[in-house]
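Title: Prediction job returns without error message
Component: structure pipeline
Severity: low
Priority: P3
Assignee: unassigned

Description:
Job completed but the reporter wants confirmation the result is attached to the right record. Sequence as submitted:
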Amino acid sequence: MGASVSAPRDDPHFPANSNQATEIKEVSSEVVKDNLASDNSKITMKKINSKTEIPAAIIKEDSQTAKPVPLSGDRSAKTVGPDNKNSNNNNKLAALLPHKYDCIIQEADMNINQSELHSHLSSGILLNQKKQKYWIDDTGCNCFMLFPRSLAITWAEDERYWHWPSVKESSTSDEMAIEVAELLNVCWLEANGKLDISKLTPGVKYDILFVVMLKNSAYGWEAPVNLRLVHPDGKTQQRKENLQVKPKSQWIELHVGEFQTPPQPDDKQEKEIQFSLFEYEDGKWKRGLVIKGVIVQPKK
């Protein structure tokens, strides 16, 4: 790379994050006859017909209006009536849980007990030392955001080219500061990421979106940026975005592509999707792009 071109650093201004987790809609849950045990430190699972996982939590019936929320990740919720007329006093209401949630929250930055699980799943859980965020949408499907520290950004650790300020991530259950990547001056822009699709809800079409912001001081964006998605089978989607026509000083979403998860995950197949934001062909120096991360969520 040629000699660096110094550029004045101005204090970054970051507007409030508008990416709020969607509230989960309440619907009726299955009524389970079996006596199940509750434990605040661990969730015990019980297999029903070898397909549906039910948490072993006893939900008290002293509230007639409260209903558990199904979190199965299915697009439609099922309702099952009591086994018999005399079982009303002993009904145990349980919520279906999202796909592989128990494996995913093992990477959580905080301890999550059973009583707080639903709240955290809807508002967002930070993973891997604030490098990712996991939540579920209103249909119970898994969603992820990969923050810049989980991406491979060319020259990211060279303070001549990139700056790492912190912003509040208010969509999590507790407002936490996460690092974003602010471009100071480069002629070679490249940010790559990947995600294991086994963590995504099966049989769902997902969108992949880069979340970025252009500061008022931005320059060098005459050439459009490239956005690329590589499927597990090697199929590639690629498109361009003209950042010059985008609003400045606010977070915007750049659509990379879409991906359909298989109905039944196959351990023999490749499991990763890869996504990229890049521009280095015109050789112009660029400034003022802030990368917040990559969202992987069901297509709306």
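Comment from assignee: result matches the submitted record. DSSP finds two helices and 19 strands in the chain.
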